[in-house]
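ARCHIVE CARD
CATEGORY: sequence design from structure
SOURCE FIELD: tokenized fold
FIELD CONTENT:
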């Protein structure tokens, strides 16, 4: 499959906050696609280990990082690198790449489709460029300042946004969300991947998402996509989410709401902490 460059985008190579060319974007897309296909081909032979918090990781993710991280170091020497399996690498810098080789590890290991490779950059505290590739479905979400947001070659959103009252609408929530919140809403879904939940909101399929206990590597790949698709990312207690305090890889302790206005306000009234 060739790299994804919408025709309109090829005609307007807008200068972006990242100063990254379409050629480099194409190289990143090819790399993430290769990494994703490697993961897909090796799933049944994955060696599974448990972290201290009892979440699983695999030898495949380590090999994916071994493929992607050298590329980032070579092509972006002025960037700090943050990855789920290797942590923070290098001194603190104003530009950061954050990588989650498999967002949705449990879903991946269970043979389900809603997992993917997530990579995003934060420049001067702002989401700059992000990618999320889902190998099973071949859905490639990406976006950035000056470029817009896309699912493959289609601009986001796809024109299928739903209000909360629409029978096709749903909220994407964590699998354990019911333990911590009461939901005064009938249509809740969990797909097992923070990045997938966010991309479904950007796409317009999900009306909103509640995120809980995530790290920056879970979000960095989708923050630019959400921003360019007109989606707000706020703390549950209100206030815009900023990635800057979490560049060291620390856990984001407060829950996050992801939706377009005016859905955010409605979501707060429908989701109550226990």
């Amino acid at each position: 499959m060739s790299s994804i460059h919408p025709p309109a985008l090829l005609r307007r190579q807008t200068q972006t906050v990242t100063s990254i060319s379409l050629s480099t974007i194409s190289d990143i897309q090819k790399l993430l696609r290769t990494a994703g296909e490697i993961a897909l081909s090796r799933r049944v032979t994955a060696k599974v280990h448990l972290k201290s918090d009892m979440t699983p990781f695999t030898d495949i993710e380590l090999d994916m990082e071994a493929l992607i991280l050298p590329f980032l170091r070579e092509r972006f020497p002025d960037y700090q690198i943050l990855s789920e399996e290797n942590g923070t690498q290098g001194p603190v810098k104003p530009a950061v790449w954050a990588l989650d080789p498999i967002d949705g590890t449990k879903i991946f290991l269970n043979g389900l489709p809603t997992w993917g490779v997530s990579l995003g950059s934060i420049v001067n505290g702002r989401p700059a460029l992000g990618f999320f590739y889902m190998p099973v479905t071949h859905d490639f979400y990406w976006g950035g300042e000056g470029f817009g947001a896309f699912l493959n070659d289609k601009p986001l959103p796809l024109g299928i946004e739903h209000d909360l009252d629409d029978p096709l609408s749903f909220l994407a929530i964590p699998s354990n969300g019911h333990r911590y919140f009461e939901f005064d809403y009938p249509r809740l879904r969990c797909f097992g991947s923070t990045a997938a939940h966010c991309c479904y909101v950007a796409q317009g399929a999900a009306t909103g998402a509640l995120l809980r206990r995530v790290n920056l590597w879970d979000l960095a790949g989708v923050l630019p996509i959400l921003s360019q698709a007109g989606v707000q990312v706020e703390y549950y207690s209100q206030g815009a989410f900023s990635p800057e305090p979490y560049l060291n890889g620390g856990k984001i302790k407060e829950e996050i709401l992801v939706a377009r206005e005016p859905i955010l306000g409605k979501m707060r009234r429908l989701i109550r902490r226990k």
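CARD ANNOTATION: DSSP finds eight helices and 17 strands in the chain. The radius of gyration is 18 Å.
SHELF: design records, drawer C
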